[in-house]
Amino acid sequence: MKRLGLSVALLAFLLTGCDSTEMKARKKAEYLASLTCYSSKEGRTADELQAIADSCFKGGRYSKSSGIKW
Q: How much is the average pLDDT of 26-37?
């Protein structure tokens, strides 16, 4: 009986306590969408830097490495 109760409790914890991969992907997408052109670029991952660059490009604040505005 104890074993059954522990099994049910463990199963319930695993099902409710862990984020699904879809939930993690949605949270990551929301986080990346929240980054703006003015967000710090220090210590960012490649995905974060890409999101910041996309934000700058969409806002018309993108410049080439030469400093020439597009």
A: 93
Distance CA 9, CA 60 (A): 53
pLDDT at 10 over 70: yes
Residue-wise DSSP of 24-66? HHHHHHHHHHH--TTS--TT--HHHHHHHHHHHHHTT--B-TT
Determine the residue type at 23: M
Q: Which residues contact 7 (CB under 8 A, 6 or more apart)?
A: none
Number of alpha carbons in the 13 Å side-chain half-sphere of residue 64:
4
Q: Is the pTM of this model over 0.70?
A: no
